[in-house]
Design goal:
- The chain is of the alpha+beta class.
- The protein folds into 2 domains: 38 residues; 136 residues, no CATH class.
- It contains 5 helices and 5 strands; from the N terminus they run H-E-E-H-E-E-H-H-H-E.
- A hairpin with a 4-residue loop joins strand 3 and strand 4.
- It comes from Brevibacillus agri.
- It holds the Pfam family DUF4825.
- This is DUF4825 domain-containing protein.
Length: 183
């Protein structure tokens, strides 16, 4: 009787181990991979991942971690703060614009809205690639999204007033013009 109980418990343990290893863990890993992929799209990016970077002052170097939680986070880059001008330079170390310029410009626009909404005194962002620089100002983003960008920082308002605009091709075509090209 005792041997049967031990055998039954062993079989039950092996069965549970197989279910966990063969079904539950792979399902969780797949969901985690999908979540990370979703963070690369302005349509599905999770606002909650960037809210910890809300700050009144752009001179706080920890604000730069914001860009590690936005679309294009996988592109190699460095930063320079120009505190006297309330500006951030994001230096991309490759000519990524040529690969898919339209999509990258749309992601830069999204990243700009996020940065200006989260950092109160930030006035300018320069995105520097090897062959060109794209500059965007707070006033240009406010023309597109309204004067009070910080008011957009709730999940509902962000989805309705920011992310939904990425489904409007005409808006995106005009919106990316806020990124002014400099040689």
């Amino acid at each position: 009787m005792q041997n049967k109980l031990i055998l039954l418990l062993a079989l039950l343990g092996i069965g549970l181990f197989a279910v966990i290893q063969g079904w539950i863990l792979p399902k969780k890993e797949l969901a985690a991979e999908q979540y990370l992929a979703d963070q690369q799209s302005p349509l599905t990016h999770d606002l909650q991942t960037i809210l910890p970077y809300k700050n009144k002052y752009m001179g706080d170097v920890s604000n730069l971690n914001l860009f590690n939680h936005l679309p294009l986070k996988d592109l190699k880059r460095s930063y320079q703060l120009r505190s006297d001008e309330f500006a951030i330079e994001v230096h991309y170390e490759a000519d990524e614009l040529r690969e898919d310029e339209k999509a990258i410009r749309q992601m830069l626009l999204y990243n700009s809205v996020a940065a200006f909404a989260l950092i109160d005194n930030l006035q300018t962002i320069d995105y520097r690639f090897l062959d060109r620089t794209l500059t965007v100002t707070r006033s240009r983003i406010q023309q597109l999204f309204g004067d009070d960008l910080a008011a957009l920082l709730t999940t509902e308002k962000w989805r309705a007033n920011v992310q939904q605009k990425w489904q409007d091709a005409r808006f995106l075509q005009e919106g990316v013009k806020a990124l002014e090209e400099k040689q």
